[in-house]
């Protein structure tokens, strides 16, 4: 990573829980009857920030499950508002219970599939996205991507300044990032490069909140938008014709990715989506790139970007979580 040996600590955490069985049983055998999975990343920052990201990655799965089950007797009966509220409350509780009195904080970007819906909850500058792979054409489409919660965004800047914080916006073209400036308990000034996070209590007094933005995407809507059952053809004025590939529901494959800024600062979301799709959906004879190898390729590409840009003096931690989404 560059720097002193004591700084060579990976503060990022990533997880994929698939299947993700909610607390309680859906049937007498304890087997889930509703498709659920959970994945995400947590990017720790500042001194001992890895303590907060570790707390989040270990506590969030069971905390979310518990909160969802408080509202329903079976996973099939849980509605959208209940899940959104459970995600929001889980982020808030992780923030409150984090070991932040002796450490920094972390981002949180997670994707929760429950039946036909995908819930994306984000706080900070890590990102999550949903993408599709169209088998007949091998086309990869990013269907949804969470935003980076940055201090210069109008709504974020307004909240921070109303709570007494100061937002630093670097000169255009400088390559820097906007920051929320704050003084820690020891009197040291810091600039936090995000407007939402978990565990940053000092900055929290100045408008850096743990509340996630939670969006919902319907799996069936994405699939339906790509289906072209008849493989229709069009005829141009010059007499030439072109036919679209026949695409059925089975041809549309969905997948989800969460990644920290150590990756997305140097590898575009499109490049990540295309390479993950190769690892998930390539068939025998097409290269057979395994998902783990695909993720390793992306990490190495980002690491090279950091090395080339920083001359080996610094590289941010890098984490990625990826999973197929089944309908």
From TrEMBL:
InterPro entries: PP2C (IPR015655), PP2C_BS (IPR000222), PPM-type-like_dom_sf (IPR036457), PPM-type_phosphatase-like_dom (IPR001932). The keyword Hydrolase applies. PROSITE patterns: PPM_1 (PS01032), PPM_2 (PS51746). Its main location: membrane. SMART domains: PP2Cc. Keywords: Hydrolase, Metal-binding, Protein phosphatase. Pfam families: PP2C. It is a peripheral membrane protein. Residues 1-325 form the PPM-type phosphatase domain. SUPFAM superfamilies: PP2C-like. GO terms for cellular component: membrane. It comes from the Eukaryota. Belongs to the PP2C family. This is PPM-type phosphatase domain-containing protein. It comes from Ditylum brightwellii.
């Amino acid at each position: 990573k560059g720097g002193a040996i004591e700084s060579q600590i990976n503060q990022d955490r990533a997880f994929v829980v698939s299947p993700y069985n909610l607390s309680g049983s859906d049937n007498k055998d304890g087997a889930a009857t509703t498709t659920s999975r959970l994945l995400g990343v947590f990017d720790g920052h500042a001194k001992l920030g890895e303590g907060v990201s570790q707390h989040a990655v270990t506590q969030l799965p069971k905390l979310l499950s518990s909160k969802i089950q408080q509202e329903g007797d079976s996973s099939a009966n849980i509605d959208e508002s209940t899940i959104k509220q459970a995600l929001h409350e889980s982020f808030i509780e992780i923030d409150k219970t984090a070991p932040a009195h002796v450490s920094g904080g972390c981002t949180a970007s997670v994707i929760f599939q429950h039946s036909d819906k995908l819930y994306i909850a984000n706080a900070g500058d890590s990102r999550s996205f949903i993408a599709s792979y169209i088998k007949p054409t091998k086309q990869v489409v990013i269907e949804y991507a969470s935003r980076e919660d940055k201090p210069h965004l109008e709504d974020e800047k307004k909240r921070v300044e109303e709570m007494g914080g100061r937002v630093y916006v670097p000169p255009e073209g400088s390559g820097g990032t906007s920051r929320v400036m704050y003084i820690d308990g020891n009197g040291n000034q810091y600039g936090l490069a995000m407007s939402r996070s978990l565990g940053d209590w000092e900055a929290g007094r100045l408008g850096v909140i743990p509340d996630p933005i939670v969006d919902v995407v319907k799996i069936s809507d994405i699939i339906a938008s790509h289906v072209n059952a008849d493989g229709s053809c069009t005829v141009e004025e010059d007499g030439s014709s072109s036919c679209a590939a026949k695409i059925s529901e089975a041809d549309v494959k969905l997948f989800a990715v969460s990644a920290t800024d150590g990756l997305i600062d140097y590898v575009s979301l499109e490049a990540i989506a295309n390479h993950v799709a190769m690892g998930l959906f390539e068939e025998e004879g097409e290269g057979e790139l395994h998902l783990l190898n695909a993720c390793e390729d992306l990490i190495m590409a980002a690491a090279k970007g950091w090395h080339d840009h920083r001359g080996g003096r610094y590289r941010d931690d890098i984490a990625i979580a990826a999973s197929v989404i089944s309908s």
